[in-house]
Each structure stands twice: as C-alpha cells, then as structure tokens.
Amino acid sequence: MKFIIGFILLFMSIFNVTGQEMVMDHSHMPINVPTNAKIPALSLHLSKDAMSGYNLTLQLQRYELMPPPEGFSMADLMSAAISPSSGFIEGHAHLYINGVKIQRIYGENIHLPDSLFKSSVNTISVTLNNHGHMYWVAKDKKVVATLYVDQDKTPFVTYIFESFPIKKINQ
Fold this sequence. Notes:
The protein is mostly beta strands. The chain has helices at about 1-15, 75-80, and strands spanning about 30, 40-50, 55-60, 65, 90-95, 100-105, 110, 120-130, 135-140, 140, 145-150, 155-160. It has two helices and twelve strands.
C-alpha cells in the first residue's frame, strides 16, 4: 500500500496534477545581454479597460520589440540579435499571470480579459526574451517586471517590481 501511495505522489509531482497553482515556466534558458549592447529597461503600466479587464502597457528603453524574423535558422533564433540601426537587442516578451505563461508579446499594448484573474491578489509578470525564447539577463538578473494586483483595492496595483526600470524623463 505504501508503494502505491508513493508512486501516486511521485506521479502527481512529476506531472503537476496536484491541483496547486502552476509556477512560472522555467523551461526557458537565460541569455546574457551582449557586452556591446545597452541593457534594456522594462516597466509596466496597468489601467482598467472601459469595457472589461485591464490594459497593460510595456514601457521599454533600449529594446526592439518584434516577432521573430522569417527564414532564420534555429541557431540564429537562439543567439543575440542586435538592431543595426539602433544598436539595441531585439526580441519579444512573455506574459505570465499568476505564474502561468499566457502568451508572447510583440507590441507595447495588450488587453487582459477578466477571465485571466482570480479574486484577491494576482501577479502580472513580463520577461524580455530573444527570438529563441531565452530570457535576457544582465548583471546576473533576469530582465523582468511584475505587478501585484488586487482588484478589490484602490489603487488596484499594490506593489511593483522591476529588475531594470525605465528612467523617467523630466522627473
């Protein structure tokens, strides 16, 4: 009997079927910002949508947000792409809500429907990633921004974490 219970617990831990909230996807690998590129900055702004849900705006500096180019090899996608015109690294972003990867982001504005949120505190995290989905790292820190949101409080954003926040001009 102990063997069966042990096997069931092992199976549940391997396949994450315990019913507990999923944790952030850590299957993606890090990639260092090249020394010849400036460190990107990321901040998030969240506002309530007039109809429903929220509108999330990515505020970026020193980063070219775009989908992967067509015709690139896997080796090209996994390496650091630097824009020849700006000198900034290129890539996309990943959106996580409550630790669950929701989607890739190729633009600065995204609508988040109410259905993505639970009652009480929620987290919205965005990472910057290269075209091969590796997350950018600088100074041994992941380039990430996270908002803690409680829909029942005013203001509803209760805490902000930004590993490399944008520098506000004229403030």
